[in-house]
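User: Before I run my own analysis I want an independent prediction to cross-check against. Here's the chain; please return only the structure tokens and, at the end, one sentence I can use as a sanity check.
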Amino acid sequence: MIVVVEPFGGSSRRQNPQLPHIFWDDLGLTRADGIFESLLVHEGRACNVERHVERFLAGAKKLDLPELGRDAVLKATGEAVAGWVDECGDELVDGKLVWTFTRGRASTGIPSVWMTVTDVPAGNAKLREKGVKVKLCEKGITLHPEKAPWIASGAKSLGYSATMAALRAAKAEGMDDVIWVDGDRVLEGATSTVISIKGKKVRTPPSGTDVLAGTTQQAVFETLTAAGYACKEKALSVDKLKEADGVWLVSSVRGAVPVRSLDGEKLNRNTPDDVARLLAEAMFS
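Assistant: Structure tokens:
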């Protein structure tokens, strides 16, 4: 399911998936100049949509892209989800909804905006059950926004080549995923937010220059706080992760995936019985 959005008017239309709709000179393709968001479609609705809209529009502003407007994003989202439901028919399944907003064609300067809904990647449920083996990878770059204010930190940009290279390296070593670190400082997962639990304390690295604010992490904190957990953004070291009762990578479509090991060292799994249920509840919020 593809819905193309007019960036200067907010109108939208369904696109035949068998026909091309992105031009050869689109700067999203040639320069990774753009942003995106990934959402879960569950039981015929987009999950956690308000947090995604907020981050999407904030990211567009950071990249000096035209203002789409909340209503236009929600309208197109509704059309994309409705189209997905129609295609599913009587066998409604979860979908992966992706919003993409690029600088557009170099020759015209007109931005490109589209939304897709596809099948959720196979194996997600198995990962939530069995967990992942994680490789710690140095980010290699420490950002200093006071020296480089043009860096659009906080925008979920299309530039994922380093991330995909790190994931390939992890899989070549028999691991499933990556957590970025800066020395001993934990940053974030390759495509997720890191959460640790010790007793009733839940921690995640502070969002900012090096860490993208996580929409799923925010939903998790809201749910766990209501259940009596003390949730806080706080700097985490690798040793703190190893000492935790449990560590998770949380993201919108994959949900909450337990980390089984870091660089081959097994981690604890001693969290209260209600944690898995609460994490699933947050995923579908």
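Sanity check: The chain has two domains: 2-120, 125-282.
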